[in-house]
Write a structure and sequence with these properties.
- This protein is α/β, with parallel strands linked by helices and 517 residues long.
- It is 28% helix and 10% strand.
- The chain contains 16 helices and 14 strands.
- A hairpin with a 6-residue loop joins strand 4 and strand 5.
- Helix 3 runs antiparallel to helix 4.
- It is globular, with a radius of gyration of 22 Å.
- It starts with a helix and ends with a helix.
């Protein structure tokens, strides 16, 4: 009887007590994994997929998918809300048209300053060029039908992953309800965990981000917003909280030399070799730690970054809440305008993302495709960015969903139930990360091809100036970009040589912000 009771107690213990997310930027599934023949069983490119150069003139020719993508992107695809819709080229009446996925090249040509150099949007990484990501995908699980939760850019997708709604936001840089500098007030998955008695850590590499969400500026969140030292310490000691959410480096760490540039994978300014190194370092820290057998690591990207993917995104999903989409419009106050085709962006999904899940409880070589009926909460449920919140609710017994969207999304905790015991064969070490600097023309000693603050850093400059009541040094202050100033980011620039200065100021500003009640 005692043995049976002990066995029942073991079976009742949750298998996953520590969940770690690394949230990267702007890469599509086909761009990342479409040419990786070394990953068996995934829905990848055949090699003959193409897009016309001109949608209205087929005789103008086509661009076929090709590999050889540089680690440092030479161009930055268009990925605002409207360009995304043109790239999808949705045919048919609202609300259930069919994305033809043939407008990527023509849209780049329309918006690009150099219409003759737009083929990069059809380019992906060659087989073998992503040794860390591919190894983790083969050793554990890769999702090949995980979609962006919002068919548009970064901010809405960040908020969908964190709070299962973007609360009206449709465009990066807009304030809540088009109110300049107004933060978004919705509840987050971090709030839900804390209310249920679970701990979390929001980890930043150099300075805090996503401060356009109101609750992240409150004392409870500030106390749990810490740098990478906290993560590596927790991993080594086995003291990871329920959720650790890691934001990659947006600036530079000059002590790392060529490895010290931005490592979020965002096209131009970021070297994907550095993203590979971050994935390696985080995995190996977890694998070596005493808490590994109770840990899951998910790495995902916020949106596909405007790169081509051959799989049409689903056109059916529930709106998260009663908040309608908010199209701010340039120079206008309040939520004005709409999708030109009349499509509601909250009732459909964006393109596929290259999501990988690693845990000793995940079978080697798992490919997670279209969800089975047994795992779908609703007939049309899919894996998307809100699946993270849906899964955390189940893993940690949270009392309620955040919105209708995470209630609809397919959770993936079933992947942790397929083994009788944690695997002991998971690799302790991954292959070496690629050498930084391939492609592009690095112009700084830390291996990036830009030497002034990124757009995200410019917004961070303005945010910290506002909350701290102080100005950044003059040449940084001159290029700070507050909420609602997306257009200015394309026409104004920071002085060359200010990336290091901005990184230092933002890091110090983060510490001053954290100490404020």
């Amino acid at each position: 009887m005692l043995l049976a009771a002990q066995l029942a107690l073991v079976l009742a213990e949750p298998r996953i007590k520590h969940f770690v997310v690394i949230y990267f930027e702007n890469r599509a599934f086909d761009h990342f994994f479409g040419h990786q023949s070394s990953i068996p069983g995934i829905d990848r490119l055949k090699g003959n997929e193409s897009n016309p150069k001109n949608l209205s003139d087929p005789s103008a020719g086509h661009i076929t998918v090709f590999d050889g993508a540089p680690y440092i992107a030479t161009s930055h695809p268009q990925h605002g809300y409207l360009p995304y819709q043109e790239k999808f080229d949705i045919q048919g009446p609202y609300p259930h048209g069919t994305p033809r996925m043939d407008g990527f090249v023509a849209t780049e040509a329309k918006y690009s300053q150099n219409a003759t150099k737009v083929d990069f949007v059809m380019q992906g990484f060659s087989d073998g060029d992503l040794p860390i990501s591919a190894t983790l995908a083969k050793e554990f699980a890769v999702f090949d039908h995980w979609y962006a939760a919002f068919p548009g850019p970064s901010w809405p997708n960040h908020m969908m992953s964190i709070s299962a709604t973007s609360n009206g936001d449709t465009q990066t840089g807009d304030g809540y309800q088009c109110q300049k500098s107004k933060a978004y007030p919705q509840k987050t998955i971090f709030d839900s965990l804390l209310e249920a008695g679970h701990e979390y850590a929001r980890i930043y590499n150099d300075s805090a981000i996503e401060l356009y969400i109101e609750s992240f500026n409150k004392p409870a969140a500030k106390a749990r917003t810490q740098n990478m030292d906290r993560f590596f310490s927790d991993a080594a000691k086995g003291t990871l909280p329920a959720l650790t959410w890691i934001a990659p480096r947006q600036g530079v760490n000059t002590s790392l030399g060529a490895w010290g540039g931005p490592n979020s994978d965002h096209p131009n300014c970021c070297d994907v070799a550095l993203g590979e190194r971050l994935r390696k370092d985080v995995y190996e820290a977890l694998r070596a730690g005493p808490g590994w057998n109770e840990t899951a690591l998910l790495f995902t990207w916020d949106d596909p970054g405007g790169f081509f993917d051959h799989v049409p995104p689903p056109m059916s999903a529930p709106a998260p809440d009663e908040q309608p989409p908010c199209f701010c419009g340039k120079g206008e106050g309040g939520c004005k305008g709409s999708d030109p085709r009349g499509y509601n962006p909250y009732t459909r999904l964006g393109s596929r993302l290259p999501v990988v899940l690693a845990s000793p409880w995940v079978k080697k070589g798992t490919v997670v495709g279209t969800p089975s009926e047994a795992h779908r909460p609703f007939a049309d449920s899919q894996y998307d960015g809100t699946s993270i919140a849906a899964t955390l609710k189940r893993l940690f017994g949270l009392p309620s969903f955040l919105t209708k969207r995470d209630a609809w999304a397919v959770p993936f905790d079933h992947l942790f139930e397929e083994l009788d015991a944690p695997r002991s064969d998971a690799p302790m070490h991954l292959p070496p990360a690629p050498t930084p600097g391939r492609g592009g023309t690095p112009t700084s000693p830390w291996g990036t091809d830009c030497d002034d603050p990124t757009r995200r850093m410019r917004r961070s400059l303005a945010h910290f100036e506002a909350v701290l009541g102080e100005e950044a040094p003059p040449r940084l202050h001159a290029c700070a970009a507050p909420f609602g100033e997306e257009a200015a980011l394309w026409t104004s620039s920071c002085e060359a040589g200010t990336m290091q200065e901005a990184t230092s100021w933002l890091g110090n500003a983060t510490e001053r912000w954290r100490r404020r009640a």
